[in-house]
Amino acid sequence: MAKKSNKNASYTVPGLTTTEGHALADTLQQRLNALNDLQLTLKHAHWNVVGPNFISVHEMLDPQIETVRSFVDEVAERMATMGVSPVGLPGAIVASRTWDDYDVMRATGVEHLAALDLVYNGVIKDHRKAIEKAGKVDPITEDMLIGQVKELELFQWFMRSHIESASGQLENSSASTEKGAAKSVAADKSAKSIKSAQALKPGKLAKGEKSAKKK
Ligand SMILES: [Fe+2]
């Protein structure tokens, strides 16, 4: 005889009905999956970044990973507090997630950052939807999610700053896939550097460049 599921406790937090509390905790399960996926994806980029910006991007990612891991723990423990067992197992995450794996392997710093910008878009948009749901029944969960989005959006800005032009345009703005985002900055950068290299005659200084001899 199959054992009765013990996923849900008989209680939730005070002031909410058990049905309300458990339903909101179920919403948090998807946020838990997304954050678990995000911290692994950020580590993947940390290991696969190459090129001149290697150390700055490699080291920029670790504090983000640590913070996202703390959010994983915070969301899981909020679920347990609300009377629903958090599921942190890899198979369950893969079975229930609504997105594909990050698909950039070895790539330059800006290529990873352009692709990760899209990853952040997805996580943040869904976090905001969860904030809306939480706001209807539980300001405590809402407050937790708002605090997380504030940090996630700050991290996304760190990434966007690397792919933003002086006029405020994001170089990956027309991309809808991670590979496309990486490609858009790679093509742009190489096209620009080829163009500026061709414009320079041997011995001629670039615009704004000063001769060292004048010092
Ligand atoms: Fe490392």
Secondary structure topology:
Layout: H1 18-48, E1 49-50, H2 54-81, H3 90-96, E2 107-108, H4 109-137, H5 139-162, H6 178-199
Parallel strand pairs: 1-2
This protein binds fe (ii) ion (FE2).
Helix content: 55-70%
Largest sheet: 2 strands, parallel
Strand fraction equals under 5%
Give the low-confidence spans.
Answer: 193-215
**Structural class label:** mainly alpha
According to DSSP, the number of beta strands is 2
Backbone CA Rg: 22 Å
Mean pLDDT: 89
Global outline: elongated
- Determine the N-to-C terminus distance: 87 Å
Explain what you see:
The protein is mostly helical and 215 residues long. The relative contact order is 0.13. Mean pLDDT is 89; it is low at 193-215. It has a single domain, classed as Ferritin, CATH 1.20.1260.10. It has helices spanning 18-48, 54-81, 90-96, 109-137, 139-162, 178-199, and strands spanning 49-50, 107-108. Helix 4 runs antiparallel to helix 6 (178-199). The N and C termini lie far apart (87 Å). Bound molecules: fe (ii) ion (FE2).
